[in-house]
Write a structure and sequence with these properties.
Elements: H1 2-23, E1 27-28, E2 36-37, H2 61-143
Antiparallel strand pairs: 1-2
Length: about 160
Amino acid sequence: MRILFFTRWLSIALSVLVLSVAGRSQQPTGSENNSFSPSPAVHVSELPPVTRPAPPNTGNPEMDKKYLRQQQKLLAKQEKERKKLQRRQEEEHQPIVRLAEEQKQVIEQQMELEHQQQTQRLVQEEARQEQKLRAQQESHQTKSPQQPSRSADDKP
């Protein structure tokens, strides 16, 4: 019973923690005051890759090179920012994973302790039942000693 309560409490606590962490990645919508709407991608790893635009074609080779360098520089910057954010998000998840593992260990230890107590109670109950049966049998034997049973071959 205690384990069930603790497990339920842990589930609620982890849900609240996950929601509070997820809330950081939500953006406010303009139409709703003080409410948040989740973005389609929660983590950077869930975003589609950065798309490369078509090479510039202005008709001026020098301008095309300049624009291409600018696009490449922007793409490199975006990739770097994505990798940096992905690392940070993964680092933020680690304490939750450790917490979940620690809580799982606590629950398992409590469950094993309860199992040990249940087993001890069972063994004690079995011993009590066996002792009661022996006492009943001994009591019955002392009240009425059994007569040796006679077989058909025995003649009085």
